[in-house]
Amino acid sequence: GGIMERLRRTDRLAELGGFAGSHPWLAACFLICALSLAGIPPFSGFFAKFGLVKAGLQGGHYPAVAVALAVSVLTLFYIMRAWLEVFWKPAPATPGVAAAVFPEGQYALLLLPVALLTGGTLLLGLWGEPFWAAARQAAADLVDPGRYIAAVLGG
Predict the structure, then answer these.
(1) How far is CA 57 from CA 43, 64, 95, in A?
(2) Which pLDDT belongs to residue 132?
(3) Count of CB atoms within 10 A of residue 7's CB?
């Protein structure tokens, strides 16, 4: 199961809550990734969404642009609803739902992949120009493979 399921021993949204106080780093990582997924600047998802919207507008694909923007709004709404439910509502007092106890260091191992993905989102969003430049060059090389062919075949 997921990290929250392992921490609270349930995957039911109604039985989760209070994670912002008990696991603030997990709350921060979730929020950053959620905002990126919804396409909110300055996170990496914004630049991907911006590129799609810009290309759609330039190509005259207005219904596709409208759908992309509507999906972003719906994603933001539902992901924020889940964030509020899991992290900010009070922890349940359900007798059958007890917090999991991990051996020393195991929580850090559970949080590590989440933190790495969050770091990647921040890196691409805040300092992504070198990555975008490499992607643009790769796209240009795909359109005109002459440079690649010359480099591989030596001529």
Answers:
(1) 22, 9, 54
(2) 85
(3) 21
Contact 75, 3 (CB under 8 A): no
Which among 56, 28, 22 is positioned nearest to 118, based on CA atoms? Answer: 28
Count of CB atoms within 10 A of residue 30's CB?
Answer: 22
Residue 21 CA to residue 91 CA, distance in Å, equals 9
Nearest to 101 by CA among 89, 90, 92, 110: 110
125 within 8 A of 36, measured Cβ to Cβ = yes
Instruction: Say whether pLDDT at 18 is over 60.
Output: yes
- Average the pLDDT over 1-12 and give the result: 71
